[in-house]
Amino acid sequence: MAAAAKLKKEENMNKRWERTDWFREARFGMFIHWGLYAIPARGEWVRSFEKLSNQDYEPYFNEFNPDRYDPRAWAKAAKAAGQQYAVLTTKHHDGFCLFDSEFTDYKAPNTPAQRDLIKEYVEAFREEGLKVGFYYSLIDWYHDDYPAYGDRIHPMRDNEAYKDRSIQFERYVDYMHAQVKELLTNYGQIDVMWFDFSYDDMTGEKWRATELVNLIRSLQPDIIIDNRLGGHIKAAEPEVYAGDFYSPEQIVPPGGIVDENGLNVPWEACITLNDNWGYHAKDQAYKSPKQVVRALVECISKNGNMLLNVGPDARGEIPTQSLQILTAVGEWMQRNGQSIYGCGASELPKPEWGRYTQNGNMLYAHVFDRGIGPIYFQGLKGKIKKARLLADGSELKVSLPWMAEQYSDTDSGAFIHLIGAELPDDMDTVIALELVTEVINVESRS
Question: What is the average pLDDT value for the chain, to the nearest integer?
């Protein structure tokens, strides 16, 4: 019996690794938060922060008419930025659905938009050859059977009128399951199911999570699911619903993610371009292209992905500032994407001048800090077959400078001289090193 259980566990882990194969190759995706909250333009949590009732929020439903919504433009922007997949909010916490659900009237086809906006998104991103993902909030501030009074985040958490309201939570869970079934039945193959989020006692089997995941697997066997249904994805024996990948938010884990067995867990850091997920007209705290590139490199150097968020405005357009950043990142990716796609961590220690990513015997040195003198590569003496500047393929010489001969640590290290006092690319200068003997790439599971 113990042997059978062990075999089953290994089988499940292997399936997770197989399902996430494309995900670990892609490394870079676009997150899109869009909904009614784009109209008040104060972020996606406006209902909760300002304690708006359904009635307070209703004018936005009656007004929603994104006349400049062009998902093909979104898809082209994602592709040009070097992103390989996308995840769009089908329903956020406010309960509003961008898709044509038969289980609610609170949906885009009943607004002045008068159509299924998710259908257009799927078609547009598929046309560009990108993988397609759905975000779906487990939370619903509109549904009558979702707990309101006393809940930590519900807009009506302090409203006495909701205190003695009778609800049937199982009816809400039935509704939620039915909508997930719709999403995974009506739009062809879907690559990612991104749930958000569990909290307090609203987690795991509260959502009938095992039943839900079994339903998802029956409809879309190859889909990958995040870890926000609950459970313990890092456990030695994670629950059925613990997910295929870990989803840290607004942070890059200090050392990547491994489970209790010491095996790598696929993961993806979701990061905003400014300080909000949904459109916020006054939020100008945008990250620079350099910050984005370096954060992306950090994720890959720790065996992770980055899901970079944009928040389209009420008319359906991605803000100009976001597009400018994506364009700059895309230009860097065109020259240096080889150091991102399919790459993972190296067993070499983090160098003081930047980071490493690796794919087989190709080691990519991401130089962030020019420093003084030649670039030092600890532990690589005699192991570099060829060195090239990745952006243009130009040859770089590996040599021992005379002024370094007296230092004992040169016995194991290699040096490459970069001409000039500044880096060729201040965002991230990438040196591609073809190794004579492959230095182990710790993206492998063990």
Answer: 95
Q: Three-class SS of residue 193?
A: strand
Q: At what angle do helices 71-80 and 320-336 cross, to 10 degrees?
A: 40
Q: Strands, DSSP E only, in 293-353?
A: 304-310
- Cα gap 364→375, rounded to integer Å: 13
Would you give the DSSP letter of residue 124? H
93 near 45, Cβ under 8 Å? yes
Spatial neighbors of 260 by CB under 8 A, at least 6 apart, are 234, 235, 236
Residue 211: count of CB within 10 angstroms of its CB:
14
- Please give the Cα distance from 223 to 170 (Å, whole number): 26
CB-count exposure of residue 110 (10 Å: 0-12, 13-18, 19+) = middle
Give the mean pLDDT of 154-169.
97
Contact 437/385 with Cβ under 8 angstroms?
A: no
- 29 in Cβ contact with 266 (< 8 Å): no
pLDDT at 437: 76
Q: What is the DSSP letter of 344?
A: B
Give Cα separations from 29 to 75, 304, 344 (angstroms).
11, 12, 16
DSSP string of 93-114, one letter each residue: TT--BSS--TT-S-BGGGSTT-
Average pLDDT over residues 225-237: 97
The torsion angles phi and psi of 254, rounded to 5 degrees, stand at -55, -35
Read off the pLDDT of each residue in 233-245 and give the average, rounded to a whole number. Answer: 97
CA atoms of 64 and 43, how far apart (whole Å)? 16
Measured CA to CA, the distance from residue 20 to residue 191 in angstroms comes to 10
- Please compute, for residue 91, the number of CA atoms within 13 A of its CA located in the half-sphere on the CB side: 29
Which residues are 202's β-sheet partners?
199
**Looking at residue 174, what is its pLDDT?**
98
Q: What is the dihedral of CA 175, 181, 182, 186, to 10 degrees?
A: 180
Tokens matching residue 425 = 């690319």
Q: What is the DSSP letter of 207?
A: G
For residue 430, pLDDT beyond 80: yes
Q: How far is CA 312 from the centre of its chain?
A: 17
Average pLDDT over every residue of 73-101 = 98
- CA-wise closest residue to 270 among 322, 308, 302: 308
Query: What is the C-alpha separation between 233 and 253, in angstroms, rounded?
Result: 15
338: which 2 tokens?
């080889």
Q: Which helix (H) or strand (E) holds 355?
A: strand 354-359
Provide the 8-state DSSP code for 226: B
